[in-house]
Amino acid sequence: MKQPCNRWMCLTCGLLVIQEFLKSIHTRRLVGCVFTIPHERIARMFKLGILFAILLSLSASGQTTRPDAEKQLAHDIYKQFIEIHSGYTTGATTPVAEAASSRLKAGEFADTDIFVGGAILTKANLVVRYHGTGAAKPILLLAHTDVVEAKREDWSVDPFQFIEKDGFYYGRGTADDKAQAAVWIANLIQYKKEGFKPDRDIIVALTADEEGGGPYNGVEWLLKTHRDLIEAEYALNEGGWGEESKKKISNDLQVSEKYVINFRFEVRNKGGHSSLPVPDNAIYHLAGALGRLSKFGFPLKANAVTSAYFQEMSKIDNGPYKNDLTKVAENSPEAMQRVAAASSAWNATLRTTCVATMLEGGHAMNALPQLAAATVNCRVLPEDTLEYVESTLRTVVADDQVSVKLVGEPHPGPASPLRPDLLDAARQLTDKLWPGVPVIPIMVMGATDGAYLRSAGIPCYGIQGFFMDRDDIRFHGRDERMSVQSFYEGQAFLYELVKRLSSASNSR
Ligand SMILES: [Zn+2]
Questions:
Q1: Residue-wise over 386-424: b if at least 16 C-beta within 10 A, else e?
Q2: N or C: which end of the chain has fewer CB within 10 A?
Q3: How far apart are alpha carbons 233 and 288 in whole angstroms?
Q4: Cβ count within 10 A of residue 134
Q5: d(CA 180, CA 78)
Q6: How does pLDDT run across 16-51, given as a tens digit for each residue?
Q7: How many CA atoms, within 13 angstroms, populate the side-chain half-sphere of residue 359?
Q8: Which residues have C-beta within 8 Å of that of residue 296, sequence separation ≥ 6?
Q9: Centre of ligand 1 from the C-alpha of residue 211, in Å
Q10: 187 CB contacts (<8 Å, ≥6 apart)?
């Protein structure tokens, strides 16, 4: 008769589940205990296994995140920023700038190295300078502090309360762009604490009104009025992030971006009584134009950056489009058609897009409309001009009753040159933190403040190291969130990246 299995009772300390499992095997399938290894030895093996697992997880977390005290500081600044109502239209960025300023002063930054100011009182920006040896030109670290408006009733949680739930931090701005803002400040304070001596000044600018631009945009204002404060060899900004789809796919480095052009399609009509309708109706004219727009696609094409992107993607994508991705990089029109049809993101990477986003029209239920208008928002490839987009839209509209008017001023920006020092540092660090994950140069479909800098001759690169599920991006939407792990990994990535880019051996 073999040993009775209640000997497993001696393996306490959380092994009761295993005991139960073994018991069930024993009672259901086995007459006696089939394990003939002395139970003391098995106990020792389990203990060793548990110890090994703990050590492994400790060393893994030690590699990908900063020590607890630094994480705590980044967390506290992040929370503070998220809970400030800095909505683009109804909020103020000044409290964020002031909060950052207080944190920096507590971290022993001199008042003379901190600037707080903006186009109007409520839209202040913060600029802080961390002095290096001056061997190389400064590097600028940029993040915006305004956020897209968020209504409590649209969200499942309060958008201006920093909430940790199910492994995520929730709140408006958790991804766009207060994580990077908080990390820039926390890391700068840490550099100071360590006595890190960079070979170039490190400038952090937290700026107003990126969301929607306009007269109070911090980057534009700083360039116009205080350019000396942010003059730099190049800048790091939002716009590049880690793509995840069940596993980490790529750490994207943004080197160019589409720019925005808004148009207003407008139809004016003399109107009349609704009991006497006529075919010449403002709403029908507009509807016809929008219908034609909905069926129109700008030509598909690849440029230097998007070709590089598709080339890299073809190496890591093992789905049905693997071959097509290679062919897109080689400019195959047929492959572009298939790839664009497969994904709205790939479609937007391959062409300029224009889409109706807002409508207005009519003035009474019983009157023929005197006005019908729509806003059409275009995301334009850097190589497509305003004139080209405008004339193309007029051709698509094909109705002289519908006027096509430009709204606001577009800010086209050239692509930034691919810097080998930045690309190499990003690649090495990405591989160290997340082995096997490539760094992919990208053009983003959205627009960032990087466009102002690029136009002003300061190359700008979007890189964050915050990994996000690429099929669940909540920027500007409801329940915006950032994975807790991603936040701290991004902190560690940016900490090391900036250090490398501002250390003698890497700056040239
Ligand atoms: Zn943003």
A1: eeebbebbeebbebebbebeeeeebbbbebbeebeebbe
A2: N
A3: 49
A4: 11
A5: 9
A6: 334 444 444 443 333 333 343 445 565 566 556 655
A7: 9
A8: 396
A9: 7
A10: 74, 491, 494, 495, 498
403 Cα: distance to centroid of ligand 1 (angstroms): 32
Ligand 1 centre and the CA of 474: distance in Å?
Answer: 12
- Cα of 322 vs centre of ligand 1, distance in Å, is 31
Contact 386, 426 (CB under 8 A): no
Q: Which residue has the tokens 């404060």?
A: 229
Statement: residue 504 has pLDDT above 80: no
pTM to 2 decimal places:
0.75
* Encoded tokens for 267: 């139809």
Give the Å distance between the CA of 447 and the centre of ligand 1. Answer: 8
Phi-psi label, residue 384: left if phi above 0, alpha if psi -120 to 50, beta otherwise: beta
The 8-class DSSP code of residue 147 comes to B
Give me the percent of the chain exceeding a pLDDT of 90: 74
